[in-house]
Description:
The chain is mainly alpha-helical.
Amino acid sequence: MSKKAWGGRFTKSTNHLVEEYTASIGFDYKLADEDIQGSIAHATMLATQGIITVEEMDLIIRGLKEIKKEIEEGQFEFSIALEDIHMNIEKRLIEKIGPVGGKLHTARSRNDQVALDMHLYLKKWVKQLGIRLAELIEGFIQKAEENIDVILPGYTHLQRAQPILFSHHLMAYVSMFLRDLERLQDSWKRIDLMPLGAGALAGTTFPIDRKQVADLLDFQGIYANSMDAVSDRDYIVEFLSHASLMMMHLSRLSEELILWSSQEFQFVELDDAFCTGSSIMPQKKNPDVAELVRGKTGRVYGHLISLLTTLKGLPLTYNKDMQEDKEGMFDTVQTLDGALALMKPMVETMKVNQEKMAKSVKEDFSNATDYADYLVTKGIPFRQAHEIVGKTVLYCIEQKKYLLDLTIEEYHAFSDQVEKDIYEKLQPEQVVNARSSYGGTAKESVFVQIEEAKTKLQDL
Ligand code: ARG
């Protein structure tokens, strides 16, 4: 005979393979804190509403607190036969305080209980991730300020395009991270919704007070429809999609760190503490952390697609398929948290090779656009100027020279409009600082970005 909490209508015990297959305790033990917190609020409300007595509430809450302690101290024995965290805790409560423990589940179903736990869990993590992200942004802004005079080539098609400030490059990531933070905050009102009181799907016959539970657990909103409350996983999908965007940004950054720290670029050197070696090649210092951030981005995308796919065919309301919402979400918060936590000190401690970067902008044609712009200021239409510069560059390549190596006579062979000031105009610092339009790479424009980013961060 079945000893399950739901065993009443069963005549056989569950096949052990079924138990193993359907149990979620192997991962939803992570919801223990939230489950207990939710149960304490629920019991408090039941007593306030006269559904249980205050003495019963006291017993239940004391029991729950003891269970919390047992779990924290590793004394709690999780059982697969009890399926999930909710049943494990309830069973233990009844063991500890007797049949009165069975009153806790009055006016509640595991369907709204698990929904509540997931909301509480995500609220906790979104807060934590927001703090991490804000810290990362601060670190980047500081690095940008410290390296305000460093110039390196900016790329398109991974071909040198125009020189830029290193701080401008960092501030591009700050812009992305600020959007990420904004997105997290926007999603808050949908995470901050309280589902308890939905019962299994249709509400409850008991005179509950959902507002009290919401207040006790610090929720701003309450689900308006009980069927939606137990079926909704939109907020998790939304979180996974925001997490995917964040990982995508971190992955692009990782890719750049990997390239920049290669022998080919040598733009930065990652600190020893953030690299690993090779078991066979003694000379190696590998950017494993950046590579793993790039690599782990895939699994976060996977969790998003996986949950969307799980949900797409589900009829209302709860279906066991929805148990699959957990592992992906747990893994995502962990993966993202780890990436954010490591990225900050890795970038803070990396050495910026100013000389190597400077050499790269001198030994290339990334000032060619500025030469064309120069000709435009002399009254030559841009298309014509483009042609003149293109021919000059071709000449330089044949002569193994750069634009700044040309004599004024050589310039004149292509255009008689060129004057001596061209040598000044084509210097990397000049080229960078000429781009002083709003959002441009000139030092003054980057300072504006830094100030605006600081303000934005404060306001978020
Ligand atoms: N472990 C379940 C889950 O995570 C809890 C809800 C179970 N509800 C039910 N009606 N079987 O989805």
